[in-house]
């Protein structure tokens, strides 16, 4: 049975200073600020036609989003996630990071025959960002494929969100639960680490070689490449056939909120997954 999960829709990061977050994500990433609310401690950015990024500052006795209050949703802390860029933009990206005074690390994730140089850096809140080259002519298309973007010259030319890496304390239970409870397509795991890959699409696919697909990575708590952590208490949004995810979530007995066709679920590890109907 194909996975009901269609694509990566957005993610929410926890920050301790909202204006600093807005400054970083508008100036360094060039994202459009859609909405910000100091009182609620929230800022919401457009990434592209299908994806968004949200910042939440935790405030005592107040939910950033009252709709998700029953699930005790929080933004992710120290989350590793990746942006899609065109491979030919990598050099310019490194120069832009230098101009902003942001240290970066380059790692080649490819093979000698097909290099895949990738750049890692941190935002001011300890989230680990990655710039990953994406081959727009690759046949492995996500539901909402990335497209070339125009961003201000001082901003990184990011096309879309590529991957989110979450930490799970009980790795073995996670590997069973994610396909069962949400229908996520398990692709493979790494031989040398507790690191499972889920393809955000109907079928598991091979990762790498510039694939434009989106990914959920699930790790045991560990420090991965370039000192990046998987996120804790993340809030991640996916496009999905919601009517196919809901019976799974009910059968699993997980706390959830269904409103306006959107299904939000609290995973036993404290992550909140929100499933949005296709656009
Ligand atoms: Fe990564």
Note down, in words, how this protein is organized.
With 279 residues, this protein is of the alpha+beta class. The chain has a single domain (5-276), classed as 2,3-Dihydroxybiphenyl 1,2-Dioxygenase, domain 1. The protein has four helices and 16 strands. Strands 2-3-4-1-13-16-15-14 form an eight-stranded mixed beta sheet, with helices on one face. Strands 6-7-8-5-9-12-11-10 form an eight-stranded mixed beta sheet, with helices on one face. 43% of the residues are buried. Fe (ii) ion binds next to β5. Fe (ii) ion is lined by residues 80, 82, 130, 163.
Brief description of this entry?
The chain is of the alpha+beta class and 279 residues long. It has helices at 18-27, 90-99, 171-182, 242-252, and strands spanning 5-14, 32-37, 42-46, 52-56, 80-85, 105-108, 117-122, 128-133, 160-167, 185-189, 195-199, 215-219, 235-240, 256-259, 262-266, 272-276. The model has no long low-confidence stretch (mean pLDDT 97).
Keywords:
dioxygenase, Ring-cleavage extradiol dioxygenase, 16 strands, VOC_core, 279 residues, Glyas_Fos-R_dOase_dom, single chain, 8-stranded mixed β-sheet, binds fe (ii) ion, oxidoreductase
* Cα shape: globular
**Helicity range of the residues?**
10-25%
Largest sheet: 8 strands, mixed
CATH superfamily: 2,3-Dihydroxybiphenyl 1,2-Dioxygenase, domain 1
| CATH architecture identity | Roll
User: What is the multimeric organization of the chains shown?
Assistant: single chain
Are any ligands bound, and if so which?
A: fe (ii) ion
SSE blueprint:
Layout: E1 5-14, H1 18-27, E2 32-37, E3 42-46, E4 52-56, E5 80-85, H2 90-99, E6 105-108, E7 117-122, E8 128-133, E9 160-167, H3 171-182, E10 185-189, E11 195-199, E12 215-219, E13 235-240, H4 242-252, E14 256-259, E15 262-266, E16 272-276
Parallel strand pairs: 1-4, 5-8, 9-12, 13-16
Antiparallel strand pairs: 1-13, 2-3, 3-4, 5-9, 6-7, 7-8, 10-11, 11-12, 14-15, 15-16
């Amino acid at each position: 049975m194909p996975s009901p999960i269609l694509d990566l829709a957005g993610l929410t990061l926890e920050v301790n200073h909202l204006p600093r977050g807005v400054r970083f994500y508008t100036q360094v990433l060039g994202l459009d600020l859609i909405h910000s609310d100091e009182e609620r401690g929230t800022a919401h950015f457009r990434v592209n036609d299908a994806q968004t990024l949200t910042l939440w500052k935790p405030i005592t006795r107040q939910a950033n989003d009252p709709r998700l209050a029953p699930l005790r949703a929080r933004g992710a802390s120290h989350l590793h996630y990746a942006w899609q860029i065109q491979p030919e933009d990598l050099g310019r990206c490194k120069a832009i990071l230098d101009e902003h005074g942001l240290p970066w690390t380059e790692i080649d994730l490819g093979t000698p025959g097909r290099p895949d140089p990738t750049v890692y850096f941190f935002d001011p809140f300890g989230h680990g960002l990655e710039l990953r080259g994406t081959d727009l002519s690759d046949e492995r298309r996500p539901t909402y494929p990335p497209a070339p973007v125009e961003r201000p010259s001082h901003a990184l030319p990011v096309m879309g969100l590529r991957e989110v890496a979450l930490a799970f304390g009980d790795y073995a239970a996670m590997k069973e639960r994610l396909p069962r409870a949400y229908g996520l397509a398990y692709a493979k795991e790494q031989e040398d680490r507790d690191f499972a890959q889920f393809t955000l699409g109907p079928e598991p696919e091979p990762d790498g070689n510039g694939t434009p697909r989106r990914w959920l990575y699930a790790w045991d708590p560990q420090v991965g490449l370039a000192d990046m952590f998987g996120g804790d208490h993340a809030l991640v949004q996916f496009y999905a056939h919601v009517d196919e995810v809901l019976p799974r979530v009910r059968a699993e007995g997980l706390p959830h909120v269904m409103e306006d066709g959107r299904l939000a679920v609290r995973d036993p590890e404290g992550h909140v997954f929100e499933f949005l109907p296709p656009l």
